[in-house]
Specification:
about 425 residues; alpha+beta; Rossmann fold; five-stranded mixed beta sheet; elongated; cytoplasm; aa-tRNA-synth_II/BPL/LPL; aminoacyl-trna synthetase; ligase; EC 6.1.1.21
């Protein structure tokens, strides 16, 4: 209708289209991760993007920001309470329990990794979207602090392998059940005199889960907790031994670290070792920003109905990592090579051009051709723009003589060869 504006369809707020050029960067990071995880003997697990609400409300903690503010949850047509996964660990643990992967027939530690989208309803900002992507690992069945250090080392190796080297590792311990019980009371005793000054969120958490107050983003809350008692003063003998071993093993591997006694992480299921790996990339204005984090969660399998099984893992935000790589383009080594571009001159070369391009692909080469009936000059320009290593040119005369002109685009050398050789053994032609 005249005067009627065109309806514009746009992606939902907090989501992003990953276009073809950008996708190459994602594939680069994912390929590096798969390559590294294979060396550490981790295997991929894929879980649903949505789970029953209780999987996350029970594991993440009823007072955590994820549960109280950020989860995309709804009732489906069968009135089931469903949640789009806000993080990867709980779904993997649910699968671990449901499929009885704790059985004696499975190797311990049972080591898996995952890649995929996660969903949190929060204010979109650079590197933090409502649909975001994580790469993560989980290892079950071993309570040895050596595994804690191996997981941390693997996270550092992963970031280094994609080209991120200016990193800071920050660690802490949340101790065992007795540690947290004693510390919880000491923290409540310290915070209660400040209750009227706390933010509304922290007031609500004060008696339900006071450790959450340490994680508050409110500036006034942060000032109050500056002088709070340290959990490191409440560690049991076993917890202290576990943490001391972690620190010693990190030192033995030459991995530098800092201890931050106020770090608690944003999820309630952690105990003992927790860690964050930060980058001071110019993508974050030179400010230290977390790009990978994780820790130990020895009670999580039990919470979802399984036997007592220790676990540890980490999660890495892909969008945030790509911000770092985009800020330093030289660290991206994207493979988009074109081995050969077929230049067909005249309509009669169309069939043979298609035959050649398919034959090269079947031989393991990347190959392309013109589909727009462009003049030879336009086709050669395209080959140059795509950085083709070779051009293979055929025209009416070449068809009649069963020949093709193969040109090395780097040296400029050009030879006339048999079309049969190109189609059957291109390696021999370019040798």
């Amino acid at each position: 209708m005249k005067g009627m504006s065109l309806l514009k369809y746009q992606k939902p707020k907090g989501t992003a289209d990953i276009l073809a050029d950008e996708s190459a960067k994602w594939q680069y990071v994912e390929a590096k991760a798969r390559e590294l995880f294979k060396k550490y003997r981790y295997h991929e697990m894929r879980t649903p993007t949505f789970e029953n609400f209780e999987v996350f409300s029970r594991t993440s903690g009823e007072t955590s920001d994820i549960v109280t503010k950020e989860m995309y949850d709804f009732h489906d047509k069968g009135d089931r309470h469903i949640t789009l996964r806000p993080e990867g660990t709980a779904g993997v643990v649910r699968s671990f329990v449901e499929n009885k992967l704790y059985g004696p027939e499975y190797q311990k530690p049972y080591k898996v990794y995952y890649m995929g989208p996660m969903f949190r309803y929060e204010r979109p900002q650079s590197g933090r979207l409502r649909e975001f992507h994580q790469i993560g690992v989980e290892a079950f069945g071993v309570d040895n602090p050596t595994l804690d250090v191996e997981v941390i080392a693997m996270a550092m190796d992963l970031l280094n392998s994609v080209g991120v080297h200016s990193l800071k590792l920050v660690i802490n311990t949340l101790g065992d059940l007795e540690t947290r019980k004693n510390y919880r009371q000491a923290l409540i005793d310290y915070l209660e005199p400040f209750e009227d000054q706390l933010s509304e969120d922290s007031k609500e958490r004060l008696h339900k889960n006071p450790l959450r107050v340490l994680d508050s983003k409110d500036e006034n809350d942060q000032k109050i907790v500056e002088n709070a008692p340290s959990i490191l003063d409440f560690l049991t003998e076993d917890s202290q031994k576990h943490f001391d071993t972690v620190k010693q093993l990190l030192e033995n591997l030459g991995i530098e670290y800092e201890v931050d006694a106020n770090m608690v992480r944003g999820l309630d299921y952690y105990n003992h070792t927790i860690f964050e790996i930060m980058s001071d990339s110019k993508a974050f204005g030179g400010k230290w920003t977390t790009v990978c984090a994780g820790g130990r969660y020895n009670g999580l399998v039990e919470q979802l109905g399984g036997p007592a099984t220790p676990g540890i893992g980490f999660g890495l935000g892909v969008e945030r990592l790509l911000l770092v790589l985009d800020a330093e383009q030289d660290k991206l080594q994207l493979d988009d090579e074109l081995d050969a571009y077929i230049v067909g001159i005249g309509d009669e070369t169309n069939v043979k051009s298609l035959e050649i391009v398919q034959a090269l692909r079947h031989q393991g080469y990347t190959a392309d051709r013109d589909y727009l009936d462009r003049k030879p000059k336009g086709q050669f320009k395209t080959a140059s723009r795509l950085n083709a290593k070779y051009t293979i040119t055929i025209g009416e005369r070449e068809l009649q003589e069963n020949k093709a002109n193969v040109k090395n685009m780097e040296t400029g050398n050009e030879i006339s060869v048999s079309l049969d050789d190109v189609i059957n053994d291109f390696a021999k032609v370019i040798k």
